[in-house]
Amino acid sequence: MVQRRAVVTGASSGIGAATVRLLRLRGWDVVGVARRTERLEVLAKETGASVFTADLTDQTQVDGLRDFLQKDGPIHALVNNAGGAFGLDSVEESDPDDWSRMFDVNVVAVKRVTTALLPLLRDGARESGNADIVMLTSIAGHVPYEGGGGYNASKFATHAMTGVLRLELSGEPIRVIEIAPGMVKTDEFTLKRLGGDQERADAVYAGVDNPLTAEDIADVIVLSVELAGHVNLDLVTVKPVAQAAPETATVAAEVVPSHESTATAPAGDSGPIPRRDDAGNFYSPLVRSIAEAEGVSLAELQSIEGTGSEGRVSKADILLFVESRPAGLCTW
């Protein structure tokens, strides 16, 4: 029986580390790849996986990964998990350098690794009958949302690249699988996106009933590569039950923004929250939906000191306000 070997990028934490652990439990040889050597060494000691330190945005280091893998023969699965998000600013206000970083790690690095390792995957397919390329994208690559900007754009690009690759490999026994997670609570993803602001990162998940975990996504990844070789999960969208769309899981249940009017409302109005008030303050659909669900009036919104871009009220700000509001206070 062929001993199957998988390569998992972004293996130092979160979904990548969880995938390495589960593949090892399932009997796979695994090579975990990431930038942080010390974390990889801990993972290797825990699981028995092999590890390789590399910055996948650097072609020289990707070539080094290929050469390292080649010494031990073919590979049978590549899990392109490494990626990241930087910032939540609008398209107008966001930093182009953040966009470049996201495209570099979410798109170009994935292309670099896939190109470098395809010959080894073809060897693996010849040996075992099939091989797999798993692309970890996001529901942000399928549905845009305010504040998504560069992350939406980069994940849409990865989704497109995945579809093109599947067409180009048609006729070869290599499955191209896209897994698009929704809200997954991990130790680092949101924290990095918010520049290390732990309080704001914690507030993203505050009150959300059972967000997904890294282990949930690892389950799906491993299932997809262990199915019979003629079965391909082209696209799997995975979300917690509490989430019906990107950025809309709220403190009690899903609240879909229904008030899209751009009309202004006078201060103190307790009805639907407008997109922009008479003072020029902008409120995102997510903030409006939480405010209306929690009975927060426009006047109360206007009193909150926003920590978002240009002082705008963020989800974290409004959740902290609701949490600190005196018990029994009703604003309806």
Blueprint of the fold:
Blueprint: E1 5-9, H1 14-25, E2 29-34, H2 37-47, E3 50-53, H3 59-70, E4 77-80, H4 96-128, E5 131-136, H5 149-168, E6 174-181, H6 189-193, H7 198-204, H8 214-226, E7 235-238, H9 285-294, H10 298-303, H11 315-324
Parallel strand pairs: 1-2, 1-4, 2-3, 4-5, 5-6, 6-7
Helix pairs in contact: 1-8, 3-4, 4-5, 7-11, 9-11
Question: Could you walk me through the main structural features you see in this protein, from its secondary elements to its overall organization?
Answer:
- This protein is α/β, with parallel strands linked by helices.
- The protein folds into two domains: 5-238, 3-Layer(aba) Sandwich (Rossmann fold), CATH 3.40.50; 250-332, no CATH class.
- Helix content is 42%, strand content 11%.
- It contains eleven helices and seven strands.
- It has a seven-stranded parallel beta sheet, with helices on both faces.
- Helix 1 (14-25) links the parallel strand 1 and strand 2.
- It is elongated.
